[in-house]
Design a protein that fits this description.
single chain; about 1900 residues; alpha+beta; 6-stranded antiparallel sheet; 28 strands; about 5% strand; flat
């Protein structure tokens, strides 16, 4: 040390000669001294010498640490061999570095010194996956903002919208960074802008670091260079990479520690990492050092093999990425031929599909169009940072490196440099990611870095400007997708030039592209960056190019013959890709196009989008007809176009027509979205069923909440735009054609559909009409404001079902871009929610199913806002539509608005935006009117395949048309002069209002010859009037030319087509062939179906007349319609009449007629005329049938009722006769009919019904019946504690729970004390066990024959179905009520419970009864003969024993002694009685029958136990009964046998245990008077124990005082019933022994002197006796079936004692009740008491101190409770989720805590496993005898373990909206739900987990 000190002194002070003669530093030399010397040398102004010396030292030290040099040639053996020595050398080198940095001082002091200069304005804590962090939306500027727990809790976020989350990819804390979050949210540490008051760093402190670190980092880089070997052809060498990384662990950790020293050190590191000169000097490899040269070469090889060129090589950029295998060759040999295609052959990995030519062609085209090939290929490293990042990527982002690079980020200068470096390597990152085998891990690490860089707008803008970030990103994405393109098969399979991504490729299937896409979305969220993107035409073109790769991907072809063999699941990948790679960037861009000033951007996007679409149509060779039977759900180009149009009109006030293309383009644009809508209908009609389930999955995903606003909504909007601009007739006819229902729309009753099977017609027609309704009613993009949209969405979701808050957030499509500003949970969301819905707090249903807090629609929402159209649009499952209608119906019934089955209500729409007014022309076109007319006619005529749904839609469309009518009344009147003017066409004009009244007389139809219409004579006037049906387009052209009128309608379709062809500029001759190439060929097919022929139908109806007739048909009455305005003219003036809001079809028709009349006086007149004519209905049969139906209904109902009555009566009589015969078989002497037996006081046998065979009868010896029971071990009793204050769950280190004061612990201690001093067999009679692991028996009350049960179990065994229980363990479910059970308790044959009532109490004296009891007990109980019953009794006893573990049964010192069984058996009875008492709340005040009513099995249980107990007769001299009822003479015998342990003194006996022993020793059934006698005798003992306990409790003075007062009263009467006398006697007796003696001074000081008044003493005595009285009363109630009286708490003692017969009957209750009056001494009181006290005295002679402890104390147990939990879940979580396991001291993956005792356990933790039992299972056995209740910390859920099964119970912590948050996914604050916790506790106490929770599974001891 002296040397070091000297050197240090020298360094500080005095001048030293410049050439300090230091020996060359040998390894043994003192490091500190050297360091100090060097530091001094370097501090001099002229420090060249020092620098050289340091270099030499470092060169030596650091080159020593290169164990990999040996392995440079790839010989692993060498590396492995050199490993041992290497480790030591590395250690040494690190030590040197630390010493040198500290400049001779201590390294720790140096660290502290540097930290003092840390301007800690930023937190910057870096974390890895699975870390728990916080995000506060209120404070965040960027959506990616996150805080570490410490900063979050230190800041103030009360009332903010925050959540806790588990980090997926890792992250860093943003506290202190005002670019990412608002300063108000900074925590206390980072609030101070501390840079001002931090002193300047002294130069010499970090001087050494500046010299040492460059070498150190260079050394690290050399290491990385040498460790890297190119993987052989295709085998990944992750092993090798990991090995290198492991060796480097200490070095990187050292760097990481340096970053944690704070700002001062970070800035030195930044200097080192970014200094280009340093890098050049050290790495150029030009020196004479061979090692350095070699390392440089390796670096160049690595660069080349990565497909990158080192700029010096001056290679041309035309080269695509040559793959690793051929890399070097390609780079050297082909440099001349780079431009040629030959080069591409080397890219073997690209074209595995064999479609090589295509891949190449496309790819070459692309690379020429991208701006700059160098983005992909050139990397030049100029600094350590750049090469470090290069290797970080090469090694696939090792976590340690990532953490080091991120730890540096708080340094601003570094941040900028690093971001630029990252961007420079972006293409390289993509290539590495594509090849990686661990792409998931790697993706996470990439995002971990990029999210820190790109979330910062300022930084993103800077990099965009300086490094072409956008160009790089777009190019890289394009390249990435290029590797998996295939030829598109959409439309024209052979000639298609379009390529799409192949969704089966790993790149898409595994979502490998997401890090790059998410970066892109992230930077587009910054306005400045997005604007650059939208202004740059080249970028937009490239981007549209990228998007078109997804256009038409994952094409589905309908299988027509067989089911597909293999259902591909690629659609997941396709939907994810469209959403992430296309839609989210689109939303990002849209969010910046909100104002007028951004019009230019929209024009740009729309322009290039249309160009891309045009290219696409050309590439797939699209003309006018989509190819049949194929559909793709992916049209991102269409959707980009639609969304930008919508934005343009909504926010930017652009003129829509200025951005729309020509008509031809519009026609093309509408085809594919329309195809999707038609396919949806086909899929729901099961026409795609052969394509498997996945096609349904696609249809659902397309409308599902996360996708709908990027998929179906833009599609429908685009169709709305097309419809508003195209010819309406063309549009409507296209719709019906796409939906394949044109053939159905004929007036004829039969038709032939060439493209659709009959069974699909109806649903396709419904689909087409529903689509039209949606198209015409939906206003999402046509004029609704954001708030209106939100409200409509919310109402639709709430109408389907009540929803929880979180599911609503999930179901309401929010703008997918995170920065859109409409964040879920935002202000508008909450305010709309409270406006439309009521909160239903979580309630409990009796079944125990747990409710979440739900929102349910308010009444006025149902009344005015329920919108079936929106519901249909948003339902993923069709059943949800039905559910909404059912709820709506229920509401109308409940509120009395409409009693019947309502139709979906018609809802007024928001007004259309002016740009889209043209949409309403669809409602006013002839084609639609013809369709509506035809359908109304067909419905009226009851044609096949029409449904109420169709009618509903038709009426809806008519009503929509009336609402949106344009023409005015007056000119309409002029334009039409009476109905006969236009007689040669369907309809005169295109306005619905006037067309409604137009009469159509005849229609010509084409029908099969078999049709009924053919037989009729056609009227003469056909030629002029005949009108073609919609069939005309099918007809040969010749016919159409014949009469101009006929062909008018659907030649419209043909006309449309012609127009379309002309636009496309084809010659007309060609046009005719193109019309319908597909179908025309089908038509000419000879012999297909019957020949069609033309028929003329007489119609003579108008839409109005059809509607009126429909009204008659629907109401089932003739002339049911009467125009309302004839009675009440007001109705025309104020048309808004609420009575029409809700109703069925009749109401709808009335509403429409009223609206028609309102709109035109002509219509009004015509309606009145039609009604006057009283038209006979068209098909008379049908309507009479309908009427007949309604008439029949009543009659049929009446008949059904009578039939039912008859059946019931017959059944009852059968049952009665069966009962009687059953009775006769068993008891022939029983001739009295059944009814009377119960009334007579005569013993009837109990009758049991077997729930398996259904027979009734008594239980017999041969065929016993049994109760279905569940036996389970329980430790609930043992959990009672003696203090009222409930135990809390520990949430700090200080709070611990010790189980000393539990009932189980106290009883345990007592038994072991007794066993120390007394005879074992006697001890086991003096107590009860079963406080822990006692067996509880419960039943559902159903009985079955035991032999039936056995066969039932057999059948269960053979049943292969997976049950939730194990049959081998005897488990089953009750065949009737399915309650869980595991045994059968035989019913003892013989009398009913009630029969014992008839035993009149005998008047024998108590002495006689005592003798009888003794005699009966003395009789040995021989086991009854081997009957079936006795066998069953034996087996059930075995079951009971096996229910609990051995340690809970064996307490005897001699194992296997019969005393053990004896003790166990009566304790079972005790356990069940005690538990029932607890279930009743701990007292019997409520009275009544047993709470479980029928369900108690104690009576049967007693029989079984008694039968077994009587096998062990107690020797009469040991029988405690003698001690209780007789005075024993020979006192001295005790002294004689000293060596034997004495028996337990009777006063130390537990009286309740004695009671059970006495009763179970009696032959059953027991007589009532014997029972009372036993109780009376035991009460005397109990009372004496109370007196003894009382005497011990009070002080010496009190005792002597009482001794005297009692002695004075001793000679008054009735002394045996006065507690004062008895007490004084007890005191004087016990004073003879040493019981009171050992009270030293210290003891009395502790006992606070209580002043005892007579009242308080009386209360004490009563409380002491009450537990015994309660148990006894319960026992009496079960054995003799007497009801328990109810009473107040104060009088419980007196009521119970009189009910038990302890109270003399003549007892008067006026004066205050005295407990002593219940005493009835069998022998003189004083004698027996002194005998009892003598036993105690003789014991205290020897063991004075234990004498007191063993006295029976007053019962003080409170009811058992689970631990009390804190209000807020966060307090539990923060303490436990970081708590370490006590076994392995690691933080467990799944920590859990026991809610019964607070023990911390690892769920599934292998560290704590013992003999294949994991810790939770083990704990459940020790703590709850097989029942465990655990709170899983990381999931907030409670898990129940019951024996070998477990279930998830649910959570007792709910968020502010009353919902669970399982697995803490939402991370919102959670609060205790006291009701739920009560339910849990109730189930625990009542042992009903098995019955209430349904989802059980085996845990295989693995929890």
């Amino acid at each position: 040390m002296a040397a070091a000190a000297a050197a240090a002194a020298a360094a500080v002070g005095g001048p030293q000669p410049p050439q300090a003669e230091l020996p060359a530093p040998g390894p043994g030399l003192d490091k500190a001294a050297t360091a100090a010397h060097l530091k001094a040398a370097l501090s001099r102004p002229d420090n060249r010498a020092g620098a050289e010396e340091l270099q030499a030292l470092l060169e030596r030290v650091l080159s020593a640490e290169r164990p990999l040099a040996a392995a440079a040639d790839g010989e692993e053996a060498a590396a492995a061999g050199g490993g041992g020595g290497a480790g030591a050398a590395e250690e040494e080198a690190l030590e040197w570095c630390k010493c040198l940095l500290a400049g001779g001082g201590g390294y720790d002091e140096f660290c502290a010194a540097v930290r003092a200069y840390d301007p800690a304005a930023l937190c910057g804590l870096v974390w890895t996956a699975n870390f728990v962090a916080y995000r506060c939306r209120t404070c965040g500027i960027s959506p990616c903002m996150s805080l570490c727990a410490e900063c979050f809790h230190q800041g103030d976020h009360t009332g903010h919208d925050f959540n806790m989350f588990r980090s997926q990819a890792g992250g860093a804390c943003d506290c202190g960074d005002s670019n990412v979050m608002r300063e108000s949210g900074f925590c206390k540490r980072h609030q101070i802008k501390s840079s001002s008051n931090i002193p300047c760093v002294p130069k010499d402190l970090l001087m050494m670091s500046e010299f040492v670190l460059p070498r150190f980092i260079f050394c690290l880089i050399q290491y990385l260079r040498e460790g890297y070997n190119e993987p052989a052809a295709d085998v990944p060498s992750e092993k090798d990479l990991n090995k290198v990384l492991q060796l480097l662990e200490p070095q990187i950790s050292f760097l990481e520690d340096l970053t944690k020293m704070g700002g001062a050190m970070r800035s030195v590191l930044t200097q080192v990492l970014t200094n280009q000169q340093n890098y050049k000097d050290l790495t150029s490899g030009l020196g004479e050092n061979a090692c350095a040269k070699k390392s440089h070469e390796k670096y160049l090889i690595a660069l080349k093999s990565s497909g990158l060129t080192y700029p010096e090589d001056k290679l041309v950029y035309g080269i695509q990425e040559p793959s690793a295998g051929t890399s070097t060759l390609a780079v050297q040999g082909f440099s001349g031929a780079t431009g040629t295609l030959g080069q591409l052959d080397s890219s073997d990995e690209e074209d595995q599909d064999g479609s090589q030519g295509l891949g190449k062609r496309k790819r070459v085209k692309l690379s020429s169009s991208t701006k700059d090939q160098s983005i992909m290929d050139v990397l030049k490293h100029k600094s350590f940072l750049e090469e470090l990042l290069f290797w970080t990527i090469k090694y696939e982002f090792p976590q340690k490196m990532v953490t080091f690079l991120l730890n540096m980020l708080p340094d601003q200068e570094y941040k900028v440099a690093f971001t630029k470096t990252f961007v420079q390597h972006y293409a390289f990152i993509m290539k590495t990611l594509k090849k990686s085998h661990e792409s998931d891990t790697m993706s996470n690490r990439i995002v971990h870095i990029s999210v820190q860089l790109f979330s910062n707008e300022e930084l993103a803008r800077q990099v965009t400007e300086e490094c072409q970030l956008l160009d790089i990103m777009v190019t890289v994405l394009l390249y990435m997708m290029e590797s998996c393109l295939i030829k598109s098969e959409l439309q024209d399979e052979e000639n298609s030039l379009h390529v799409v991504v192949n969704c089966g490729e790993a790149l898409l299937k595994n979502n490998t592209y997401w890090p790059l896409v998410s970066d892109f979305i992230n930077i587009l969220s910054h306005q400045s960056v997005a604007k650059r993107f939208l202004e740059d035409h080249g970028l937009l073109v490239t981007w549209m190019n990228f998007v078109s790769f997804f256009q038409g991907m994952n094409l589905n072809k309908r299988e027509l013959n067989e089911h597909v063999e293999f259902e591909s699941q690629t659609y997941y990948a396709a939907f994810a890709a469209e959403l992430e790679a296309c839609a989210q960037p689109m939303w990002g861009l849209l969010s910046h196009c909100k104002v007028r000033e951004t019009q230019e951007y929209t024009r740009n996007v729309v322009r290039y989008c249309l160009e891309a679409l045009q290219d696409w149509f050309d590439a797939i060779n699209f003309v006018d007809e989509p190819a049949p039977n194929q559909v793709t759900f992916h049209l991102p180009l269409h959707r980009y176009y639609a969304m930008f149009l919508s934005k343009a009109v909504k926010c930017q006030e652009l003129d829509l027509d200025s951005v729309l293309p020509d008509q031809e383009m519009l026609m093309k644009l509408m085809i594919h979205p329309l195809q999707i809508q038609a396919s949806l209908a086909e899929i729901h009609s099961n026409m795609w069923v052969r394509n498997g389930l996945q096609i349904k999955g696609q249809a659902m995903t397309y409308v599902q909440s996360h996708f709908c606003n990027s998929m179906i909504d833009p599609d429908i909007y685009l169709l709305q735009v097309c419809a508003s601009r195209l010819d309406p007739d063309y549009f409507i006819s296209s719709v019906f054609e796409r939906f394949k229902v044109v053939d159905l729309l004929t007036m004829a009753s039969q038709h032939q559909n060439t493209v659709l099977d009959a069974e699909h017609e109806r649903s396709m027609l419904e689909g087409a009409l529903t689509f039209l309704v949606i198209l015409l009613s939906l206003r999402l993009h046509l004029g609704m404001s954001d708030d209106e949209i939100l409200r409509a969405e919310m109402v639709a979701q709430l109408c389907m079902n009540d929803r929880t808050h979180s599911s609503l957030l999930d179901l309401i499509p929010e703008n997918p871009n995170p920065k859109s500003g409409i964040i879920p949970g935002s202000y508008s969301f909450e305010s709309v929610l409270s406006a439309v819905a009521d909160f239903k707090a979580p309630v409990f249903e009796p079944g125990g199913s747990m409710q979440q807090g739900m929102y349910t629609p308010k009444a006025e929402v149902w009344d005015q806002e329920f919108d079936p159209v929106m519901v249909i649009l948003r339902t993923v499952y069709r059943r949800d539509v039905q559910s909404a209608m059912d709820r709506y119906t229920a509401f109308l019934k409940q509120s009395g608005k409409f009693p019947g089955n309502p139709w979906p209500p018609y809802k007024k729409r928001t007004p259309l935006h002016p740009s889209y007014k043209g949409l309403m022309r669809l409602l006013h076109c002839k084609t639609l009117h013809i369709v509506l007319f035809t359908l109304l006619y067909k419905i009226l005529m009851d044609h096949q395949n029409l449904s109420e749904h169709v009618l509903c839609m038709v009426l809806y469309l008519i009503e929509l048309g009336l609402e949106n009518s344009t023409e005015e009344e007056s000119d309409e009147e002029v334009s039409v002069c009476g109905p006969e003017r236009c007689h040669d066409s369907w309809f005169p004009g295109s306005n619905l209002v006037s067309n409604m009244r137009h009469f159509i007389n005849y229609v010509r139809v084409r029908v099969p010859e078999t049709a009924p219409e053919v037989k009729r004579d056609s009227p003469a006037s056909t030629s002029s009037d005949s009108l073609s049906s919609l069939q005309s387009s099918r007809r040969p052209k010749v016919l159409q030319r014949e009469n101009s009128g006929t062909a008018q309608v659907f030649s419209l379709v043909a006309e449309r087509r012609k127009k379309f062809q002309e636009i496309i500029n084809r010659s007309s001759s060609e046009a005719n062939q193109v019309v319908r190439p597909k179908t025309s060929s089908k038509w000419s097919a000879p012999g297909s179906a019957p020949q069609l022929t033309t028929a003329i139908l007489e119609i003579k109806e108008s839409i109005l007349s059809l509607l009126i007739k429909l009204h008659h048909k629907l109401s089932g009455k003739q002339n049911s319609y009467y125009p309302p305005w004839l009675d009440d003219i007001e109705i025309l003036i104020q048309p808004e009449i609420p009575k029409y809001n809700h109703g069925d079809g009749i109401t709808a028709v009335e509403r429409i007629l009223l609206k028609a009349a309102l709109q035109s006086r002509m219509n009004k007149r015509i309606i009145e005329e039609i009604c006057r004519k009283v038209t006979p209905p068209v098909p008379p049969k049908k309507i009479t049938a309908a009427e007949k139906k309604t008439l029949d209904k009543e009659e049929r109902r009446q008949k059904a009722r009578e039939r039912q009555q008859k059946l019931l009566a017959e059944f009852a009589s059968r049952q009665k006769s069966f009962m009687e015969t059953a009775m006769d078989v068993d008891s022939p002497e029983n001739d009295i009919p059944m009814e009377i037996t119960t009334a007579e006081p005569q013993v009837s046998e109990a009758v049991y019904d077997c729930v398996i065979c259904g027979q009734s009868g008594p239980s017999s010896e041969d065929r016993p019946t049994g109760l279905v029971v569940l036996l389970q071990a329980s430790s609930v009793l043992g959990q009672c504690r003696d203090n009222i204050e409930p135990k809390k769950l520990p949430i700090t280190e200080e709070e611990q729970i010790y189980p000393w004061d539990t009932c189980a612990a106290v009883h345990d201690v007592r038994l072991s004390l007794l066993q120390r001093y007394f005879k074992d067999s006697s001890c086991l009679l003096a107590v009860s066990i079963g406080w822990e692991g006692g067996v509880y028996v419960q039943t559902c009350g159903h009985t079955l024959h035991i032999d039936c049960h056995k066969s039932y179990m057999e059948s269960l065994r053979n049943d292969q179905v997976l049950q939730g229980f194990s049959v081998d363990k005897g488990e089953f479910t009750c065949p009737l009520c399915r309650q869980f059970a595991n045994s059968v308790l035989p019913c003892y044959p013989g009398s009913n419970v009630e029969s014992n009532l008839w035993q009149r109490p005998s008047n024998k004296s108590i002495q006689d009864l005592i003798k009888e009891v003794e005699e009966l007990q003395g009789r040995p109980g021989a086991f009854p003969s081997e009957t079936n019953l006795s066998k069953e009794m034996e087996s059930v006893m075995k079951d009971i024993k096996n229910t609990t573990q051995k340690k809970y049964r064996d307490y005897s010192k001699t194992p296997g002694s019969p005393d053990n069984d004896f003790l166990f058996m009566y304790s079972v009875a005790r356990t069940n009685l005690e538990l029932e008492l607890i279930h009743r709340g701990g007292n019997l005040c409520s009275g009544g029958a047993s709470t479980a009513g029928k369900r108690s099995c104690l009576n049967q249980l007693f029989h079984v136990l008694a039968l077994h107990m009587r096998l062990y007769s107690i020797d009469s001299e040991y029988n405690p009964w003698r001690k209780l009822t007789q005075l024993v003479e020979e006192v001295n015998s005790q002294q004689g046998n000293e060596e034997q342990q004495p028996e337990v003194p009777i006063l130390y006996h537990d009286v309740t245990s004695l009671l059970l022993i006495q009763i179970l020793m009696m032959p059953q059934p027991l007589r009532k008077d014997h029972f009372t006698c036993i109780v009376k005798v035991l009460f005397t003992l109990l009372y004496t124990q109370a007196l003894v306990a009382l005497s011990v409790k009070c002080s010496e003075e009190d005792r002597s005082a009482w001794k005297h007062t009692g002695a004075l009263k001793k000679n008054t009467c009735d002394t045996e019933k006065s507690y004062e006398v008895l007490l004084s006697f007890v005191i004087s007796e016990l004073s003879k022994g040493k019981l009171y003696h050992e009270e030293g001074t210290q003891e009395s000081a502790m006992v606070s002197p209580i002043s005892w008044s007579p009242e308080s003493m009386e209360k004490y005595l009563q409380d002491f006796c009450l537990p015994f009285l309660r148990i006894t009363s319960l026992l009496q109630h079960h054995l003799f079936g007497e009801d328990l009286p109810s009473c107040q708490e104060e009088e419980e003692f007196s009521v119970l004692s009189s009910c038990l017969g302890l109270l003399p009957t003549f007892y008067q209750t006026e004066h205050p009740f005295i407990s002593a009056s219940c005493l009835d001494w069998p022998v003189p009181a004083f004698d027996i008491i002194s005998q009892w006290c003598f036993e105690i005295n003789s014991f205290t002679e020897r063991h004075a101190e234990q004498g007191k402890a063993l006295l029976i104390q007053e019962a003080r147990w409170k009811l058992p409770h689970l631990l009390q939990l804190p209000e807020n879940y966060n307090t539990i979580f923060q303490y436990y989720h970081r708590k370490t396991c006590s076994v392995c001291t690691k933080v467990p993956k799944d920590p859990a805590v026991c809610l019964v005792c607070g023990t911390f356990v690892c769920l599934k933790g292998l560290c704590c496993k013992q003999q294949s039992y994991c810790e939770c299972v083990l704990h459940s056995q020790n703590c709850g005898a097989g029942t465990g209740i655990f709170l899983l910390i990381n999931a907030s859920v409670i898990i129940i373990i019951r024996g070998h099964r477990f279930c998830l119970w649910g959570s007792v912590y709910l968020d502010a909206h009353g919902e669970e948050d399982r697995d803490l996914r939402r991370g919102k604050p959670l609060y205790i739900c006291k009701e739920r916790y009560k339910v849990l506790e109730q189930q625990w106490i009542s042992h009903t987990f098995d019955h209430i929770n349904k989802r059980w599974g085996p845990h295989y001891n693995g929890l």
